[in-house]
Amino acid sequence: MIGLLNGKVAYYNSVYLLLDVGGVGYKVIISQGVQKNLKNIGQSLFLHIYTHVREDLLELYGFLHRDDLELFEMLLSVSGVGPKTAMSIFSKGQSKDIVTAIASADTDFFTAVPRLGRKNAQKIIIELKNKVGGSKDIDLKGLDDKESQEILSALKTFGFTTGEIKESLKSITDKNISTDKKIKLALQFLGK
Q1: Computed over its alpha carbons, how large is the radius of gyration of the chain?
Q2: How confident is the model over 85-100, as pLDDT tens digits?
Q3: DSSP conformational letter for 42
Q4: Is 66-128 in the same CATH topology as 4-63?
Q5: Structurally, what CATH architecture does the domain formed by 4-63 represent?
């Protein structure tokens, strides 16, 4: 596994660069954050590397900072998010923007990424919110107190967290349906 590369930039474009390390050129897929730091061919560059290996493929993804690599790996831990999609998320913003979007449950940030639909955007938020320190609660708009408490307690019996429940209820667009129907739709969203 390759974890770090330190060398000179031999070539670059908006998607990848070739990094000459001791006479060997490594093709490294880069985010816009790395691309913005590239000044010219021949400049020295130190990259933190994620090595993606499949039966028919070996790809290297490069990041300037260890924190970026760790966030990239967290994104990959979400089912349905592969390296290309995770890198597309990094092209949408810097690490702090991504963490803010997760913490504030900003699904619009993620749905603007190609190949990433609303369901996967919500999955990213639900699965990573506690890992990135998200503390902002998601409002239960359109629910009165009695109804929201009933839904929360019903879904908690299935083992879901309050954050997961609130996120699933955000996906329900029709607020004029019965409480039972809202619980069923929330369970469908949560995969039960």
Answers
A1: 20
A2: 999 999 888 888 999 8
A3: T
A4: no
A5: Beta Barrel (2.40)
Structural domain boundaries of the chain? 4-63, 66-128, 145-190
**pTM here?**
0.67
Q: Scanning the structure block, which residue is given the tokens 């490294």? A: 28
Which of 32-36, 107-111, 188-192 is the least confident region?
A: 188-192
**Per the structure block, which two tokens stand in for 25?**
């050129």
Q: Which two tokens stand for residue 94?
A: 């810097």
HEC-encoded secondary structure of 118-148: HHHHHHHHHHHCCCCCCCCCCCCCCCCHHHH
Residue range 66-128, CATH number: 1.10.150.20
Number of residues assigned to the chain: 192
Cβ(91)–Cβ(63) under 8 Å?
no
